[in-house]
Amino acid sequence: MKILTTSTSSQTIEFIPRLYSTSATLILTDDTTNVSTTTDVTLTQSGDYLNLSHTFTLVEGRFYDLQLEADGDIWGVNTNQWQLETQTWDSDELSNLIYKDKIFCTDQDVDQTQNKYYSVNKNEYTTNDTHDNDYIVL
Fold first, then answer.
1. What number does CATH give the domain 2-75+91-108?
2. Does this model's pTM top 0.90?
3. Using CB atoms within 10 A of its CB, is residue 71 exposed (0-12), middle (13-18) or buried (19+)?
4. What is the pLDDT of residues 31-48, one digit of tens each?
5. Residue spans per domain, the chain
């Protein structure tokens, strides 16, 4: 799962793809409303990883399904894949899926290496520690 913010500036996702491509179609589905948006994006390769830099329009506290699909001719991208494939070219089951993941949108600072975790009640619930609890009256 990737954690993104509501920022209107470009955010980058780094991932290991199922298929390497320099262009793709981004399909982002809001889990709450089940509304999908489709956008053509450019991917950059860095070693074994692909990077997606995109300006997302996300709502705080929501989950999204992210799907990247290769453009059109999957076999033109990788001839070896075609030679190893046991299905025919005409098959509807041929996949051009590059990457699939889940996104959670929050503006909270989340960094598990620094012990900063997401809190559902952040800034909504405060405790009162001003009283003395040295004894209990029965």
1. 2.60.40
2. no
3. middle
4. 999 999 999 999 999 999
5. 2-75+91-108
